Amino acid sequence: MSGPSAGTPPLATARAHRLVYGSLALVALLLAWLLMWHISSDDPWYRNADMNIHNVADALSLNSGYPLGIVDQPATTTKLLLAFDFRLRNAVGAQPVWTLKRFARSPDPIAELAELVRIGRAHSRTLVVLFTLFAAGFVGQITRRFEIACLAVVLLSGCSGLLFHGLLLRPELLCTIFGVMAMHCGWLATRTDRSRGRTLWLVLAGACSGLAILSKLPGLIYLFLVFGWCAVAPLLASREARKPSGPPPFGAGVSMILPAIALAVFASLLSLAASGADLHPTAALRLRLLAGLTALLPLLLFVRSPFRFTTYLVDRTLEFAFLLGGLLGACVGWFALLHATLPPPAAASYAAKVLNVVFFPDPLAQLYTQSGSVHRLRELLRFFAESPVLLVATTVFVVALFCFRRADLRLRVFALFFFAQSLGMMWLMSKRQYFNQYSIFVEVPLALTWCFGLAALQEWWQHRSEASERRWPAALVLTAAFILILTMPLKLIPKYRSNQDDAALPVPDLTITFLYDHDVHPAAYLAAMKARYPSRPDFVQALNRFLADPSNRR
Questions:
Q1: Residue 80 vs residues 118, 165, 183, 203: alpha-carbon distances, Å
Q2: Contact 337, 346 (CB under 8 A)
Q3: Nearest 10 degrees: CA dihedral of 320, 326, 329, 330?
Q4: DSSP states of 413-472 as a string?
């Protein structure tokens, strides 16, 4: 990006502009937080009990060292981070019940469950705010424009798909967070001039992609997006004549990290086998093949070719090896963390369940996938109906973006990758139902598309306009975006409350199942409930007594 020109306004004026931009961003973020807090504080804690109670019970189980129940999202990052949050709150004296053991000893488990759900919602709201700030830093670092970073805060603060997950405990939020972090690391890997820096950022990009997959299986798309960006970036640099010599070469020494990761994967598989964990043969085979590929691909470092195309292919293959190594490294690190949290048999059992879902998702895909082009078209139309203006406007914007040849090509293509991610997620998730939870996969990348695209257009605008006119586009866009988020309650509140109609009394049977005896819960949670409420009518009677006081409903 080019630096400030000679026509830049005086320092005092620039500071005033930054103060206005920063104030708009902070107010937008505060309004988003207040809106999420208002909905949560005025909403029954037992609404949307499926994932809320599931993840709370699993987090308590992790803190007790008990085996977990059914794994299908797999949502393991959500459970681990929530378990750590419970531990931290207990350490500072803010939460006495942080394990299933203490939950089972509680004289009123229903009251404790209500409090745990409230804490879980606060946990999700905090993640939304932290992600918004991270995304702003990410955008600001790449565009080097403070006003575009502020625009990212405003756009994400008005993103109903993102704020929706500040009201729930679901894995899509962390999947998105780790995916954007992977794209950030991928960008940094293509911009560094150091061999070790390039290797480090590629491994970190792969690790973030792995954590996204451990959150939810569609996170796999981020691995291919990062690899696609790594493949395109050298071509863009060559066209712009910024780095005619290409990216720095990989060093043989630092590449030894890949065989080390492969050995750690094989050691983890041996540990699972020794513990008698039920790892599916197909999942084990795929893990071995990926580990073997990761260990052997560094041999390409010794390939020397006079042909530029061959060198390009070898370099891209090595980049993919580092991304794959980072992904497997995330799985190994997660497995080590489980061993530090759970007894070896429980850690092995849970690890096997998650690895079966991640590396052999075929049965799960067959269970949840809706076949038929009619169904897919219906689900795609539901995505479109959720945000028709955003989808159409962004599509037109992306097409127009490539008509401005003087705009920064690298930023334009990077914006195109986020737009492609949004469309890819729409296509992928259209095989499923329950759209509301998945709109985050579409709306967040569309918001980032606008940020990087507008940064590219601002570059073009500064080339063609007078110095006094250069700041008007950013000011207008920020103001328009800020006004737009003021209408967010009109969209977010109906979106959230229509997701699951279980707020009324008496509590529906399905919600009671999630609270009391759903088979997805850990055995220890079910035992604790049975010990305190021997039968389902006993639980319903106790729940009705608790909810008879209106103050206990929210």
A1: 18, 17, 23, 22
A2: no
A3: -130
A4: HHHHHHHHHHHHHHHHHTTSS-GGGGTHHHHHHHHHHHHHHHHHHHHHHHHHS-GGGTTH
Q: How far apart are CA 160 and CA 467, in angstroms?
A: 36
Q: Measured on CA atoms in the order 449, 331, 429, 171, is the torsion positive or negative? A: negative
Residue 123 token pair: 């946990």
Across the chain, mean pLDDT equals 87
Reading the block at residue 193, the tokens are 């001039």
Give CA–CA dist 168/499, Å, rounded.
Answer: 11
> What is the Cα–Cα distance from 345 to 149, expressed in whole angstroms?
47
For the chain, what's the residue count? 554
> What ranges make up the beta strands (E) of 143-217?
none
Q: Give the pLDDT confidence of 480-523 residue by residue, as tens digits.
A: 777 777 777 777 888 787 776 677 778 888 899 999 999 889 99
The H-or-E segment that residue 178 falls in is helix 172-191
Q: Are 505 and 176 in contact (CB under 8 A)?
A: no
Q: What residues have CB less than 8 Å from 271, skipping those under 6 apart?
A: 348
Question: With bands split at pLDDT 50, 70 and 90, how would you rate the model's confidence at 434?
Answer: low
The whole-angstrom separation of Cα 343 and Cα 355 is: 18
DSSP β-bridge partners for residue 74? 216
The answer to whether residues 242 and 430 touch, using CB atoms and an 8 Å cutoff, is no
Interatomic CA distance for residues 438 and 489, integer angstroms: 19
**Model pLDDT for residues 176-219, shown as the tens digit of each residue:** 999 999 999 999 999 988 888 999 999 999 999 999 999 999 99
- Cα 431 to chain centroid, rounded: 20
Q: What is the C-alpha separation between 103 and 110, in angstroms, rounded?
A: 10
* C-alpha count within 13 angstroms, C-beta hemisphere, residue 471: 19
How many other CB atoms are found less than 10 A from the CB of residue 262? 25
Task: Say which residues have a Cβ less than 8 Å from residue 370's Cβ, sequence separation at least 6.
Answer: 376, 379, 431, 432, 433
Taking CA 418 as the corner, what is the angle to CA 426 and CA 431, rounded to the nearest 5 degrees? 15
User: Full-prediction pTM beyond 0.70?
Assistant: yes
